[in-house]
């Protein structure tokens, strides 16, 4: 029988810590989400296509505490009049959690 080693306890603590981190991470990469929800047919990271670039959006709302919630709503319900004549259509396929994740990701573009 091996004598008790403090290593066993240390390894167990490290494993449970790693598991907790994996659960806390975003489930889907937001860049892949933007592609799969067709956002990229109208938006590009740095150039205007149909809608404003993600960088322009991040620049406009930087430091605005209400922006994450407001943009998440726009992403799901659509919007108009903030950037020009063209409206953004609603995206009913995007869940609330996905919209919040996309809004945070867009606001993080620099
Ligand atoms: C059919 C083209 C189109 C698609 C698809 C589209 N957008 Fe837009 N988006 C626009 C236009 C046009 C605007 C500018 C609307 C305005 O002037 O208020 C806009 C504006 C935005 C804004 C800024 C809103 C504001 O109030 O300033 C965000 C954020 C955004 N889009 C994110 C997304 C995301 C995320 C997706 C994918 C789920 C998406 N868009 C899909 C055309 C599109």
TrEMBL record:
Domain Cytochrome c: 25-110
Signal peptide: 1-24
Alphabetized UniProt keyword annotations: Electron transport, Heme, Iron, Metal-binding, Signal, Transport
Official protein name in the record: Cytochrome c domain-containing protein
Taxonomic source organism: Chitiniphilus shinanonensis
């Amino acid at each position: 029988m091996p004598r008790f080693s403090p290593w066993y306890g240390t390894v167990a603590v490290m494993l449970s810590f790693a598991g907790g981190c994996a659960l806390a991470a975003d489930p889907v990469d937001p860049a892949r989400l933007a592609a799969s929800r067709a956002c990229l047919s109208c938006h590009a990271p740095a150039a205007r296509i149909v809608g404003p670039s993600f960088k322009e959006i991040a620049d406009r709302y930087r430091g605005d505490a209400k922006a994450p919630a407001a943009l998440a709503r726009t992403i799901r319900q659509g919007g108009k009049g903030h950037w020009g004549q063209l409206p953004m259509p609603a995206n009913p396929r995007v869940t609330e959690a996905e919209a919040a994740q996309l809004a945070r990701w867009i606001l993080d573009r620099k």
